Structure formats: structure tokens, C-alpha cells
Amino acid sequence: MRLDKLLCNLGVASRSACRDILKAGRVQVNGTVWKDGSKNVPEGAYLSLDGKRLDTRLSRHLMLYKPQGVLTAAEDHKQKTVMDLLPSCYTALGCMPVGRLDKDTTGILILTTDGELAHRLIGPKFHVDKVYEARVEGLLEEADILAFAEGLPLKDFTALPAKLEIIAPDTGRLTVQEGKYHQVKRMFGARGKPVIALHRLSFGPILLDKELSPGMFRELTGEEAAALYRAAGMEPNE
Ligand code: URA
């Protein structure tokens, strides 16, 4: 890829600002100053800006501990979104949330720059497990476990069979493979037990990191990213 395009894609600056950065001799490729942005950067080259190494991976995958009160959206003119919780370089790289959590739902949200990966992870073809902890009004019982396991008829569709474990009289851990709008809330609601609090513990093979507090994020490790690609039936692309 051309150096100016690569710098821009890496979120360093806009195309024109990158030209100025290059002209000023601030970029080195494999230890040599490159001022000409039209030159192609060799595969695996060591890039630095002002002497600091640039991370040249184009695909980035993050886990965010989504706090309450924040929208899962790329942008919103009035309300705070999950993108407001990330440094702007991730937005510049095109990082987008994979699926949605409701404004009041907390827990793991995956964000990626890889549109194909995101598309597959939320599509119906690959059944990716999502585990939620739900506190409900009322008491959970064996009949709820059976109803969820059979596939619960809702107003406009029948939910795929889901696994419910009762971990406290009013709290269940539910594993679902779909991600329809308000799905978990609607499933418990259909049993006459409205959800009071909802938290997502895992998304596919990725568990919410216990070291993260609400509002914090980290990049996925190489192994986590590879597991996510496998869950989507893809080869890791780096
Ligand atoms: N199901 C819901 O009802 N809400 C969420 O945020 C996620 C799954």
C-alpha cells in the first residue's frame, strides 16, 4: 500500500495532513526517512512517526465493558454512544460495534474494524453463543428452563432453543444464539417475569475481562481475535 494511504488508514491524520507530516521528514520506514507518500510500503515494514513505532495492523478488535446509560451506535447528536468511550483513533480506523446492547444493558460489547467479521457474527448462519445474566421481577422456576429449551414463541417469531440456568431465585444465566431486538427482555417478559437488570458476560468465545470496569476497553489478544474469526467461520486475517 502507498505510504500516504497507509498512514491515513492507520488513523495518523487526514490525507492532506499526512502529506505535511511526510514533508517534514517525521516518518521513517525501516529506519530511513520517507518523504514521498506515493511509494509502496513493503509488507511487514517497521514504521515510525517522530521516532515512535506505529502499529501497522489495519484490523483492530476490542472488547468494551459497556456501562449503563450509553447507546450502542456509531454516533448520536444528543446522547453519549459507545464510540465516545474510545480514543478517536479507533473511530478513524473504522471500528464499529458488533450488534447492539440496549442503553440500560451492561457488559461485553465487541467492536471491530472488520466489517465481514461483524456481519457474520451477528448473522443467522453462524450460531454464536451470547451469555447474559438477567435479574427479573418474580421467581424463576423449572418451567422457565423447559420453555426456553423448547423455543419460546414470541409475537413475531419463535426464539431458538436457549439454555437457562437459575443462579438465584430472581436471577438467571441465559445462553442465546440469536440477537433479535430486545430478545432477552422479550423472552423473560413472555414468561411474565420482566427483566430488571441485564448484563452480558460473554460474546462467542470471548469472556468479559474481569479486570475491566464499566466504560473501559482493551484490544483483544491474538488468541481471542483468532477464536472470534473461527467462530465466524473465517481465517484470522493477520
Ligand atoms: N437482549 C435484550 O433484550 N437486550 C439487550 O441489550 C441484549 C439482548
Which features would summarize this protein structure in a list?
238 residues; nine-stranded mixed β-sheet; 7 helices; single chain; binds uracil; alpha+beta; four-stranded antiparallel β-sheet
Task: Provide a concise account of the structure shown.
24% of the residues lie in helices and 24% in strands. The radius of gyration is 22 Å and the shape is elongated. It contains 7 helices and 13 strands.
Structural commentary:
The protein is an alpha+beta fold and 238 residues long. The protein has seven helices and 13 strands. The strands form two sheets. Strands 5, 6, 7, 8, 9, 10, 11, 12 and 13 form a nine-stranded mixed β-sheet that branches. Strands 2-1-3-4 form a four-stranded antiparallel β-sheet, with no helix packed on it. Strand 6 and strand 7 form a beta hairpin. Helix 1 (3-9) crosses helix 2 (15-23). The protein is elongated. The mean pLDDT is 93. The structure holds uracil. The site of uracil has 8 residues, from helix 6.
Small-molecule binders here are: uracil
The helix/strand order is HHEEEEEHEEHEHEEHEEEH
Number of DSSP helical runs: 7
Q: Runs with pLDDT <50, length 5+?
A: none
Molecular shape: elongated
What is the SS-derived class?
alpha+beta
In oligomeric terms, what are we looking at?
single chain
Name the helicity range.
10-25%
Mean pLDDT: 93
How far apart lie the N and C ends? 16 Å
Biggest beta sheet summary: 9 strands, mixed
Strand content: 15-25%
- Give me the Rg, rounded: 22 Å
Number of strand elements? 13
